[in-house]
Amino acid sequence: MKTKTVITAAAALALSTALVACSGGGDQGGGGGGNATNCTNEIPKKDLPTVTMWAWYPNMELVVDNFNEQNDEVQVCWTNVGQGSDEYDKFQTAITAGTGAPDVIMIEADRIPTFQIQESLADLSELGYEDVKDDYSEGAWKDVSVGDGVYGVPVDGGPMGMIYRKDLFEQYGITPPTTWAEYEAAAQKMKDAGGPLFGDHGANVPAVTMALQYQAGAQPFTYDSASPENIGIELNDDASKQVLDYWAGLVEKGLVGTQDQFTPEYISGVIGGDYATYISAAWAPGYLTGAGVGEGEDAGVWGVAPLPQWDPANPVYVNWGGSAFSVTSQASDPELAAKVAFGVYADEASLTDGWQNQVIFPLNLNALNSPEFEEYEVPFFGGQQANKEVYVPAANAYTGMTYTPFGQYYYDAFTEQLAEINEGSITGSEAADRLQADVTAYAEEQGFTVE
């Protein structure tokens, strides 16, 4: 099978999953030729060359202004063309057309392989990577790499922890569980005492389950850009089945709910005390605050503890979410674009604004390990030093994950199996076997050789 076949398949996949197919041409502030038109920001040094950028961080205008004011070599023309899938759809259209992409683009880490296999991202390993390599952890770099190539500059991440209701734990005499066995025991204790659900197993957050499988020792995918036609898929190994059977058991016993997350119904339940815990990432306080959690009667009741472990003798720390700045293959000056990707959102003022306003969880070690960040008393957690106690140690110990170039299909297929688990129609092990068969067949249809 030829590499081009896989690239074509990946392009077809991205287009098939697009919600909206829109042009990403110059009127969008794009143009890999440095066409700096319709910038959202003002460019103060108009005599300098410009690099176009698409990004959706809420404080991006401030970040770009900071970069432009401090830089005498290049200026950034920034546009927000949409968040997540909206941006990806426009980028995919530009890839297909061969024109219209920006020089630099914000991409979530798990989407990088999808665009890398289409040869639409530049390898940064020869464009300044060595100069900033020590500013980020090994795990942060692995998440934005495919094989030996580096295809993004990590900005924010999602080290995971267990958010919990301090009032409910106190009421039912529960201390934060340190293992998943303790988590189930605490859930049973709360239920036996007439308490609420201990947590939630939403089918629409398969990335959480994938992270917990990694924590248990699973390696769902092996993929290397040096052999783009080959992929390893192992979704029904013992560790993967262990995790799925565990959560299926919690659901069957009525210890956790099955509500889809990121929905009004779920948030209403969180505010109303229907769940004692929320297994999530370091960005969750910002999301929850924006959704109205932590106000009124539930203000000051939230705490956070390290994620429970499968094997406390061999703790493993995992991540959910995070994004990076990538240089596109349409960049007219890749070296100049790389200077922007490496330099924007890397200065102290931008990083501080990002984490203080809960826009990002910084992966830049200059911010991550700074006393100011570590000792910050997080308002959502009632002044708890959550970074120092939970998130920074998890981020520093995280070793990274390997993502697949057809991540959207995998997540959709996984969601279907998780929904069946929640309905009680299949066991966790059966779901793992079905997922293995489904994703393997899909990969082969797309021209991959499954190892």
Automatic annotation (TrEMBL):
The keyword Transport is assigned to this record: yes
What stretches pass through the bilayer?
A: none
Keyword annotations: Signal, Sugar transport, Transport
Looking up InterPro entries in the UniProt record yields: Bact_solute-bd_prot1, SBP
Q: Which residues form the signal peptide?
A: 1-21
- Pfam families on file: SBP_bac_1
Question: This protein is called what?
Answer: Multiple sugar transport system substrate-binding protein
